[in-house]
Specification:
Blueprint: H1 10-20, E1 24-26, H2 30-41, H3 60-70, E2 84-86, H4 88-107, E3 112-115, H5 119-135, E4 147-149, E5 158-163, E6 166-171, E7 174-176, H6 182-190, E8 199-203, H7 204-212, E9 216-221, H8 226-234, E10 239-242, H9 254-264
Parallel strand pairs: 3-6, 3-8, 8-9, 9-10
Antiparallel strand pairs: 1-2, 4-5, 5-6, 6-7
Helix pairs in contact: 1-4, 2-3, 4-9, 5-9, 6-7
Length: 266
């Protein structure tokens, strides 16, 4: 994992993001994107990430328009199948906004919870960011032991664990992929008020659920995960950064984490 001292500049990072397909021509297919936009607009809780009433204000057409604006997917509603895109400039713009939020949290030494629903790809990036915040003086929230989460809105379930400083969902000795808000809700409900996070750095339902509870939250999301971008547009989520959230080699996210740490001054 790259460190802040090895951080790429903006142009170098954009080149890396496109070359590794974290942004640019990404693997998430257009039909999957449109299906998720439609499901969110219909109120399917699997796609709301804890921002439970989004569908009341966002039609499928409005979701597509916002995703074109904030992520860089094709704005053409007639483009129904094939490839789709993330504008790497928008990814780095999002990273810059996230860096400002991290700098503010570090300056105030706020209690921080770092979590990921994509441990196969994003765990090490989140770990590096958590360690940067801790080194800047932010207390890292500890998840209560034995915290079991039943089947969530995306059918995921298991124990909330921490791998180093990063909260994840675990079951059967394996870390689990989850977009559900229920793990975050379980953590917040189990902690006394004075130990709850004041700032959350995460992705998917971990971020959405925190934002829905009024906690300052930033997070990462893919082209088929519109809820966080809608949440940012409405002010429930501070920052949503567009990226492909599961490229083949998790090490490819290292330069992104290093860029964030450097931009945040951590």
């Amino acid at each position: 994992m790259s460190t802040a001292s090895e951080a790429p500049g903006r142009a170098e990072l954009i080149d890396h993001l496109v070359r590794t397909r974290i942004a640019g021509d990404v693997a998430t297919p257009r039909e999957n994107n449109l299906d998720h936009y439609r499901e969110l607009a219909a109120g399917n809780r699997r796609f709301l990430f804890g921002l439970e009433d989004l569908h009341e204000r966002w039609s499928e057409e409005r979701v597509l328009a916002l995703m074109a604006e904030r992520v860089g997917v094709s704005p053409d509603p007639a483009h129904r199948t094939g490839a789709d895109t993330i504008d790497p400039e928008l990814t780095v713009d999002g990273l810059d906004r996230m860096a400002r939020a991290l700098r503010k949290a570090a300056g105030a030494r706020r209690r921080v919870l770092v979590a990921t629903g994509h441990p196969g790809a994003l765990l090490e990036a989140h770990r590096a960011l958590a360690e940067g915040l801790a080194a800047a003086g932010c207390p890292l929230v500890s998840v209560p032991e034995g915290l079991w989460v039943g089947r969530g809105s995306d059918e995921s379930y298991g124990l909330v664990q921490q791998v180093g400083p990063v909260a994840v969902l675990e079951r059967g000795a394996s870390l689990r992929h989850t977009h559900a808000p229920e793990p975050m809700w379980a953590v917040l409900d189990a902690l006394p008020e004075e130990e709850r996070p004041e700032f959350v750095l995460a992705d998917h339902g971990w971020s959405g659920a925190a934002g829905a509870r009024g906690i300052d939250a930033v997070g990462f999301a893919d082209t088929n995960d519109p809820a966080l971008f809608l949440g940012e547009a409405e002010g429930a989520v501070q920052v949503a950064v567009p990226l492909d959230d599961h490229v083949a080699d998790s090490r490819h996210y290292g330069p992104m984490a290093a860029y964030l740490l450097a931009a945040a001054g951590l």
